[in-house]
Amino acid sequence: MKHLLSSLLFFAFAAFANAQNSAYQQYIEQYHSMAVDQMKRHGIPASITLAQALLESNAGRSVLAIQGNNHFGIKVGGNWTGPYIIKSDDRPDDRFRKYRNVSESYEDHSLFLKRPRYAALYELQTTDYVGWARGLKAAGYATNPSYAQLLINIIEQNDLTRYDRMENAASGGRDARNQGFLQRVMLCNDVVYLVVRQGETFADIAKAAKIRESRLRSYNEVDRHYRLKAGDRVFLSRKKTHVEKPLRGTTHQIRTGESMYDIAQMYGVKVERLYKWNHLDDDYYPTEGDILVLK
Fold first, then answer.
1. Measured distance CA(115)–CA(111) in Å, rounded
2. What is the pLDDT of residues 116-171, one digit of tens each?
3. pTM of the predicted model as reported, rounded to 2 decimal places
4. Which residues lie below 8 Å from residue 281, measured CB to CB, with a gap of 6+?
5. Which domains does the chain have, with CATH numbers?
6. Cα separations (Å) of 187 from 44, 116, 226?
7. pLDDT category, 180, cuts 50, 70, 90?
């Protein structure tokens, strides 16, 4: 009887493993091109994107994936105003984002990883999947202490690094040239931006981002005479009229040398909103220690 029970357990486990492997292979076949596309446009290793999707969505079979096309377990948070699904997680009523399709989930995952807390990851090569896996865990993407190793195991067991090496022959070297620029892009207040390097100009950034220089200056509320300096933030689309929801109702204490423009760039909002929220006249000059309300 004991031998029979052991045999049954063995075959049951083997059947489960085979089913799991089959589901993984089907998922990889269906979505690997989507992960490669995200790598080319955002600089995130395709192996990492696929491993996270496989783990978080149980190869597309989770409740979130089936009901909400959410393949990365991303919760509402931030400025999300779209539909959501309520599901027990850290809390019994956690809210998770709901997407119209899987492609939208993959794109949102890439933008989610543009947040400042993940900025250090983009210093790594797209072939360094171990560094990316450990970096995601260190940055707090998941609470599971084994999260990094789980991703590494999935990547190695399914040879996902082959997708990190894929190149689009039709684009020649163009993607490679642009990848460095794309890897620098980050997210503030749901607006993409990058930090200026020494000697970089609006013309340089406009060319790389395929935006007219005049429009880029307009997004950043400066005229044609403004010259960038290393460390400046340059937003690649229009800034918002409100700060991120978690910051609304909080305050900013002005530091030595800060201008209203500096503060607006820090939070990804329009300068005039800072004046409006705080009932300030146009001739107000920021003074160290002054308190600004953020809305």
1. 7
2. 889 889 888 888 999 999 999 999 998 899 999 999 999 999 999 988 887 433 34
3. 0.57
4. 275
5. 11-169 (1.10.530.10), 185-235 (3.10.350.10), 245-293 (3.10.350.10)
6. 14, 7, 23
7. low
Cβ atoms of 295 and 248 within 8 Å: the answer is yes
> For residue 235, which of 198, 274, 276, 202 has the smallest C-alpha distance?
202
> How far does Cα 52 stand from its chain's mean position?
13
Cα separation values, 55 from 32, 122, 124, Å: 14, 22, 22
Tokens 């800034």 map to which residue? 239
Q: Can you give the C-alpha Rg of the chain in angstroms? A: 23
Where does the pLDDT of residue 182 fall: very low under 50, low under 70, confident under 90, or very high at 90 and above?
low
Q: Which residue in 55, 68, 62, 115 sits closest to 96, CA to CA?
A: 68
* pLDDT tens string 1-22: 444 334 434 333 333 344 457 7
